[in-house]
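User: Reviewer 2 asked us to show a designed sequence for the structure in our supplementary figure. I'm pasting the C-alpha cells here. Could you produce the per-position amino acids so we can include them in the response letter?
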C-alpha cells in the first residue's frame, strides 16, 4: 500500500501494511475491533492461522472463522537491529516472534512492551492490536502477561494500541 505523500510525490512502498481482500476482510474488521480471528476445520477439528480457505492439515474446505482467546506463549523470537525495507528501518530495534496461540496454531508476530532481556521461551503473552497509520488495518501483536512491562517500548507516534 502506498500513495502520494504530502508533497504529492509517490510515497515509498510500505511492506508492513496488509492488503485486505474479500476473503480476509472479516479478519481485518475483527482486528479493528480488537478481536483476533483464526480458522477452524469442521472435518479434522484443528485450528490454523494465517487465514486460508482450506484446512492446511486435511485439505478440507469446511472451515469457519472463530474468535481466538488472545492468549499465547512465546515460542521463539529475534531482536531485529537492521532492516532495509521501508518502513522497517525506522522501526528498529523491534522484536519479531513466533507465538503458540492457546487454540493451537503458531503465528508470526511482534512482541511489544517488554523490557530488554526480559523475554523467555514459554512465557505467557496477550494479544493487543496496533493501528499502523491513518486508514491502515490494525495488526495483532503480543505483550507479556504480568511482570515488569515497558509501556512505551516499540510504539511509535503512528502506532495506536487498540486493545
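Assistant: Here is a per-position design you can include in the supplement:
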Amino acid at each position: 500500500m502506498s500513495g502520494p505523500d504530502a508533497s504529492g510525490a509517490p510515497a515509498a512502498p510500505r511492506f508492513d501494511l496488509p492488503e485486505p481482500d474479500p476473503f480476509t476482510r472479516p479478519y481485518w474488521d475483527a482486528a479493528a475491533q480488537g478481536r483476533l480471528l483464526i480458522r477452524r476445520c469442521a472435518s479434522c477439528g484443528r485450528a490454523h492461522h494465517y487465514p486460508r480457505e482450506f484446512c492446511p492439515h486435511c485439505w478440507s474446505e469446511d472451515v469457519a472463522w472463530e474468535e481466538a482467546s488472545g492468549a499465547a506463549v512465546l515460542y521463539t523470537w529475534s531482536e531485529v537491529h537492521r532492516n532495509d525495507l521501508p518502513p522497517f528501518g525506522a522501526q528498529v530495534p523491534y522484536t519479531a516472534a513466533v507465538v503458540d496461540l492457546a487454540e493451537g496454531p503458531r503465528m508470526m508476530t511482534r512482541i511489544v512492551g517488554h523490557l530488554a532481556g526480559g523475554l523467555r521461551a514459554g512465557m505467557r503473552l496477550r494479544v493487543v492490536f496496533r493501528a499502523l497509520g491513518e486508514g491502515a488495518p490494525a495488526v495483532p501483536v503480543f505483550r507479556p502477561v504480568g511482570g515488569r512491562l515497558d509501556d512505551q517500548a516499540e510504539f511509535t507516534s503512528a502506532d495506536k494500541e487498540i486493545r
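For the response letter, you might also mention the following. The chain is about 5% helix and 35% strand. The chain has one domain: 25-161.
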